């Protein structure tokens, strides 16, 4: 496994022919989100692999055709991803400024009026939450993505070593599943960073030290969460794309 | 049936070349069931052939092919012709479904079986065998001949056998990490020799 993380590019061939185990696959797909060269290479190698099937044909029974055509009548085709979105599920549309600005405006309120005017809190001496401190930190940087139709932004403050996810309009996880958060290190390895609470809107402080993380991933995991991802990330927030 | 080649210069013997498949996929993504039926007719034997090859059990292979086509219908909008041919995209979905099936089905029994017990059944050169059957495959066969026997073997085990590169390494008595390189090097040579995926 460690050899793999050292040279993740070399997994492109095994990935193209589905010869990675689930963990490697999840890691490599997270890497694909940030590596254009690997995306191009995988496409070419898949093209090459599919030529191997030129002579491997088998006509399926006629009933299969009927079942398939009856089946599609009950399945809604997915809408396209954002026009530039080149990749599978979870691939984000371009960064959105509106939520970032909205949060910035809210932070200005917190910073400027927090001690005096606190309509959102009952306690007289409201203290900023850890999440708000991260979002408001001088060195906070953020990446915004659309995740399953929800607006989500990850904030990270290197000086505080913490990251926060703010999500709005998140659809519920599938039955018996939860959204799990991950911190990605330089080698592409994903460390568990806590679960997203139920509900569609929330602000979550990620567990673990985010100072040196290269990104944040979200996967769908069995209830209780997993120690390693058991599915491909539905979103990867890449700090290389973060803005101050 | 093997007229559906993803190779641009391949003979489109059934008039179902790559551009048309891409168009059928686009129509399908907008809910055009008739277009999808044509797509199915043009590609089902290719997809099913690969699925059957990996899964081996005919009844299970039918289920997997069905799953694959439902997935193709559902995700047709995600096909991007700038990133590869329609056929390659379809085969990728079919292959992934087939591999998922054999891994799920064999997860427990594989752990109990020592890899070297199985190596004799795969010792011969399955990949080369698979593509020598038709004239259509001449170019592919030539391209395969440009690979080393070791590369062909590793690619065959991974692609048609559905094994992970770690399993392939064990089956071939290679150090871990060697098989993935072999698979990649072989596919790169195949790609460059065939001039696909540029």
What does this structure look like?
The complex is a heterodimer of chains A (244) and B (198). With 244 residues, chain A is α+β, with helices and mostly antiparallel strands. Helix content of chain A is 30%, strand content 21%. Chain A folds into two domains: 2-72, Arc Repressor Mutant, subunit A (Orthogonal Bundle), CATH 1.10.10.1320; 129-241, no CATH class. The two termini of chain A are 34 Å apart. By secondary structure, chain B is mainly alpha-helical. Chain B folds into two domains: 1-112, RNA polymerase sigma factor, region 2, helix turn helix motif (Rna Polymerase Sigma Factor, Chain: A), CATH 1.10.1740; 113-198, Arc Repressor Mutant, subunit A (Orthogonal Bundle). In chain B, helix 2 (33-55) runs parallel beside helix 4 (86-112). Residues 1-16, 114-125 and 128-133 of chain B have low confidence and may be disordered. Classes of the chains: A alpha+beta (244), B mainly alpha (198). The interface between A and B is large, with 51 and 84 residues.
Topology:
The complex is a heterodimer of chains A (244) and B (198).
Chain A: H1 2-6, H2 12-16, H3 22-32, H4 36-51, H5 62-72, H6 97-113, H7 130-136, E1 141-147, E2 150-157, E3 162-168, E4 177-184, E5 190-195, E6 202-205, E7 215-222, E8 235-238
Antiparallel strand pairs in A: 1-2, 2-3, 3-6, 4-5, 4-7, 7-8
Chain B: H1 18-29, H2 33-55, H3 58-74, H4 86-112, H5 115-118, H6 126-130, H7 138-145, H8 149-159, H9 165-171, H10 178-194
